[in-house]
Recover the amino acids of this structure.
């Protein structure tokens, strides 16, 4: 991978630690539950869907979020992705709640990283701003799983043609050309980069990749476990109690994972560590997973094969 060029530090990079403390706590409350698409008609199913993220005065980010919240086609894609994942494949939640969690995690990561001097590639390579990078990251989070409407296999690639068709119109009132096409292209790189061997080569893509793996707290992957599928994947997912993104000391970001059972280590290593490796963020992010309880929680009485 060629070395990333670094632009001069922005004023935000020199912000005091207290100024970014709020970025370490969830600004948007989302249900830590598995979403099971109901038998409601599609119009009813998408009626309550509304994505929120703290914009901090980023009008470009607000413009994208407003456009998405007004677009029933995007909401319908999220609904179909949820039906395919949860009802048809018995997977973890891929509904708009997953999108909400990934988006807020990604923006939180981005702001902590940027304020510690990590320069996004739209700044380094195009002379754009951190706020433009937030739009790229948000677009990647919003559209990274839309390809699940087509198929689980290669869904990242299917997400690309849906994004290429939809995102330019959503950004029509936000950017003119050529900036709009640059933002769309960088967003699509972030989308394809979130797959297991995505090999992202921008900071923005690395952020989306890691944020996708952070939706692992207890309740977010419980359907296989509760349906009786007892394996290391379901047990380890059930063992994750909480995930927090906080400012680091030696590194820009510290991800703290609370577990109720050491089986959660598999989830952390198999999911998060796999996404962190090769993300380009390894030197900026530390991960701490621990069991705070005096005794581990018993997840299964007897395991038989």
């Amino acid at each position: 991978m060629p070395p990333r060029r670094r632009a001069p530090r922005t004023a935000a990079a020199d912000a005091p630690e207290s100024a970014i403390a709020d970025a370490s706590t969830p600004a948007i409350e989302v249900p830590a539950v598995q979403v099971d698409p109901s038998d409601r008609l599609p119009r009813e199913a998408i009626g309550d869907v509304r994505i929120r993220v703290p914009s901090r005065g980023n009008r470009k980010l607000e413009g994208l979020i407003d456009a998405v919240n007004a677009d029933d086609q995007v909401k319908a894609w999220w609904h179909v992705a949820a039906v395919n994942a949860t009802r048809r494949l018995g997977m973890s939640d891929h509904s708009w709640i997953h999108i909400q969690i990934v988006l807020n995690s990604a923006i939180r990561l981005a702001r902590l990283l940027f304020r510690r001097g990590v320069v996004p590639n739209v700044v380094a390579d195009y002379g754009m701003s951190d706020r433009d990078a937030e739009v790229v990251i948000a677009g990647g989070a919003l559209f990274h799983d839309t390809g699940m409407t087509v198929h689980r296999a290669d869904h990242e690639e299917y997400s690309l043609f849906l994004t290429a068709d939809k995102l330019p119109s959503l950004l029509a009132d936000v950017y003119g050309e050529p900036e709009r096409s640059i933002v769309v292209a960088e967003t699509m790189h972030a989308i394809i980069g979130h797959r297991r061997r995505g090999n992202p080569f921008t900071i923005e893509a690395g952020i989306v990749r890691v944020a996708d793996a952070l939706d692992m707290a207890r309740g977010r992957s419980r359907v296989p476990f509760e349906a009786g599928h007892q394996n290391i994947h379901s047990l380890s997912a059930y063992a994750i109690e909480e995930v927090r993104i906080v400012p680091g000391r030696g590194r820009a970001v510290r991800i703290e994972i609370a577990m109720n059972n050491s089986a959660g280590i598999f989830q952390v290593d198999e999911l998060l560590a796999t996404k962190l490796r090769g993300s380009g963020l390894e030197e900026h992010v530390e991960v701490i997973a621990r069991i705070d309880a005096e005794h581990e929680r018993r997840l299964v009485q007897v395991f038989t094969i």
